[in-house]
Amino acid sequence: MKHGSVKQLEFENLLPLPPDMDPFTCCENLLRCWQLQECNNYSTPSLIWSISGVYGWPYFRLGLLKVFNDCIGFAGPLFLNRLIKSFLDTQYTFRLSKFKLKLRSSIMSVIYRKCLWVNTANRSGFSEGEIQTFMSVDADRIVNLCNSLHDMWSLPLQIGIALYLLYTQVKFAFLSGLAITILLIPVNKWISVLIASATEKMMKLKDERIRKTGELLTNIRTLKMYGWDNWFADWLKETRATEVTHLATRKYLDAWCVFFWATTPTLFSLCTFGLFALMGHQLDAATVFTCLALFNSLISPLNSFPWVINGLIDAFISTRRVSKFLCCLEHSRDFSIDSGLTSEDLAVFVEDASSTWSSNLEEDYNLTIKHVSLRVPKGSFVAVIGEVGSGKTSLLNSLLGEMRCVHGSILLNGSVAYVPQVPWILSGTIRENILFGKPFDSKSYFETLSACALDVDISLMAGGDMACIGDKGVNLSGGQRARLALARAVYHGSDMYLLDDVLSAVDSQVGCWILQRALLGPLLNKKTRVMCTHNIQAISCADMIVVMDKGKVKWSGTVTDMPKSISPTFSLSNDFDMPSPNHLTKRKEPLSIKKDDLDEISEAADIVKLEERKEGRVEVTVYRNYAAFSGWFIAIVILVSAVLMQASRNGNDLWLSYWVDKTGRGVSHYSTSFYLMVLCIFCIINSILTLVRAFSFAFGGLKAAVHVHSALISKLINAPTQFFDQTPSGRILNRFSSDLYTIDDSLPFILNILLANFVGLLGIIAVLSYVQVLFLLLLLPFWYIYSKLQFFYRSTSRELRRLDSVSRSPIYASFTETLDGSSTIRAFKSEEHFVARFIEHLTLYQRTSYSEIIASLWLSLRLQLLGAMIVLFVAVMAVLGSRGNFPISFGTPGLVGLALSYAAPLVSLLGSFLTSFTETEKEMVSIERVLQYMDVPQEEVSGRQSLSGKWPVQGLVEFHNVTMRYISTLPPALNHISFTIQGGMHVGVIGRTGAGKSSILNALFRLTPVCNGEILVDGININHLPIRKLRSHLAVVPQSPFLFQGSLRDNLDPLGLSEDWRIWEILEKCKVKAEVESAGGLDSNVKESGCSYSVGQRQLLCLARALLKSSKILCLDECTANIDVHTASLLHNTISTECKGVTVITIAHRISTVLDLDSILILDRGILVEQGKPQHLLQDDSSTFSSFVRASK
């Protein structure tokens, strides 16, 4: 605490966790009980029973402590009672909080573990957004069950004791008050059922929104190139709008709940005292104020009851959701090793196997792999070939056990290493990516780097192999990502390698080096290698070839035996891409990889920015911004109604004490009915103001929630791509999930409590000062101690909340990352390594939470002791005053009674005021974090020059002395480049990996602003054009194909600009019409990240999308890399016929791709080294292009 009040806290200042709170132990315990549940109750294992199996008995013991604590609250003597209760309260809260932390870490780690062990097919029933919500929202809701369960019996017990004591005071008159309360119970029950159904619908939409946000963040670069970012943001806002309608239903129902429960005490006192007086009893101070104290003790349990019920409903919904996920079948551990059934010389044994991606047991007919039989001898190199969508990737996945094998058997002999088609890169250092949890062995490590042609790239990076890689490897080129994933597999030294198209992302020179040094080199030549590929060099070196067609093995055998009829890919192959087999294996001299070759973005050290956290207290501007989000008028209405509501309640109590004093002295001037009438008026005014406050709060909170989301999404959409490269998407997603959930739900709730506590305190101080003037003297020292305490506490608690938010981000980031790469992790059997990594993040998060709890209890105990002193002071003064020894009168018995009944709850009110104030400040950190992203740099969206509808007409592209840097401290990615591409020309851009090829497109689409020089299209400087107009008039096929979840029509033409017949025509030309028809036509649903299509098919669909645009400029970023040679050549014919008169800029790795083009540009380290017709350059032996062609032979 001292540390936090003096300077900023860091993670090392946090308290260590007690041994029983270790997340690993907690996870193991819950897992053991869950597995027991699965054994005993196979059909419907219950998460609730598993939790009670681990934590039931300690939780029951806590309950006993609570019973004792609750009963003490009703016992006398006042001062002693306060002291004992304050210590017991603190102990109970401390133990309950520890218990909640243990439960939270158990649930989070069990969910994470499940993600690692469940294969892709079994997980297909859940979207990524849904699984992320399990971790971010559902886990917290289940943990809140700890509070709600004890409250379910504790609150009725407190209410029961209070009612019995009321009976002793006013006999059966209390029944009238009770009748009103009981009448409200079914009303509240009905409201809570409606709230539950609204919550369930809201959670579904929240899952959907988080999934779409994740999709938006992952593919932001592509969306910007298409000019669809605004459309996608609007689509996201529509989902949010539907989510908000359910949130609104919930909030307004909550407001009714608040209204009923807030008016209950006033109605209770009116009915009870009214009936008591009408029954002919005399009201005296003792009766009235004992009853008032009992009413006050009733308010809290009665008010809490609806929240407890809602909390329970939420928790049970969440446990059902999480249980359903935990019931998924796990990836069989013994699946991969069964040497008893496979003869010793076989590495892969597949017998009549049929597999599906579906998790649904009924959907057997939807088979992706059909009746495949395959035997692969140990140590052989197998090339799996076939057209796009023939089932090559699915075959590898079924070998890995990622698909559900519905028929036949698949057995692998030995350990496996896997490189997926889209390389999965961890955010961390390059070394961490390669080691992947294995110990460091320098000899093997450097051999691996050399074999995968990574040594040069790494030597040029700031920090070498300890350089940090951004989220999903954003700061590496496509080729570097592929080689890094390959290096990870090679370093692992497994018995078998499953490689999915690893050579497509690298140029032919590097591809040849990798084939020679890595795949056929000394590191792997005795291992079994199964590789899906379109690379002719690799196919010609294979010991065995497997030809896939529509999910079946069409043919398998050696290269020499392959009949021409089977594979048109060979007959159409290009001499430049195919070396003779003996030529390749004999060649031993190293390829000339130049030392000074430079990466597009090499200085990874600057790439990923550390998450910022503010220091000091939450600034007033943050509160002001929140009020502005809600609307100033609403903010003022809320304040005024809250103050007047409190005034009416205090007026009600003062009128009661006046009545008591008049009737007590027997000098009453008015009839009982008059006193009751005035009480009634107070009651009605109080009810109306409560209603106004509840509804205006709900309205204001909703308005703020809507405003924050739309402002945040608008700012992020207009942020430059550099911002997304430097900010992990998990960090941004944290704002949209956790922080937005806080702004939607808990912030308005806690603010409401803060306001109620604040006006309640004002009311109490006003009444006490009116009754006993001396109380004002006590107020000064009391306020001094209180402000010291709260300053000391608040500075620490605020820092802890910020550390809490910062320590939460890595949990979500690593969780999102693991979801993407879980199949790779399972293939390498690295699950335990990743669980250990996650537990490290979780331990840090637990430590911040634990320190937060200890700090808040430190404060709570001191406040309760302070409150006990105040009660003692008021009581002593009243006793002394009644003796008449003081010159100052301490008022009438009625007022003294009122003062005591007000002083008693002062402690809890002060405590809850400070707690709610601190909590509000903590919750306000969410607004603060969201506001950070409201200040992100923005792209220059508007332009000086407007465009005519048909621009560009010619497609003339000119670069004049263009220099471009990704980050100001880095060397230029494009260095004083000048060239002109005439309209209608087809131009290829080639160069080594990282030479700056993709940077040309980045400059043309203004994804990264140029430092100097200018780019003209049809004579217009593109910097003068509105940025979205520019992008929407150019067509592009990106390097990584992008499909989002939705209908295929939306994917191809989201803006609805093309007729259906036109879409079908283009699909036919792009050779994907048959696949689309079999998937269900244009209205068929595309699964998340397009996984219902193979990578090659996705690339063809992206090409169809680009051709639909009918732009005069088409950019192809290595779009035929994942396509077999046969389909690629058909596509090139399509592009040349469809794009007559269109300027086509092709970035290529295959030499054969650029041979027929009108011109080529060759780049090296951001400099244009050569330009001209490919055929002319080929005839000149000294040209760079000739050396490229020679290297690829």
Automatic annotation (TrEMBL):
Name of the featured protein: ABC-type xenobiotic transporter
Membrane-crossing residues? 173-196, 256-279, 285-313, 626-647, 674-695, 749-768, 774-793, 863-882, 894-914
Named from the GO MF annotations, one term is: ATP binding
What organism does the UniProt record list as the source?
Arabidopsis lyrata subsp. lyrata (Lyre-leaved rock-cress)
Catalytic activity field: ATP + H2O + xenobioticSide 1 = ADP + phosphate + xenobioticSide 2
Primary localization? membrane
Name all ABC transmembrane type-1 domain ranges.
83-314, 636-922
Q: What class of enzyme is it?
A: translocase
Homology family: Belongs to the ABC transporter superfamily. ABCC family. Conjugate transporter (TC 3.A.1.208) subfamily.
Q: Where in the cell is it found?
A: Membrane
The EC designation for this entry is: 7.6.2.2
List each copy of the ABC transporter domain by range.
348-575, 957-1190
Q: Which GO terms describe its cellular component?
A: membrane
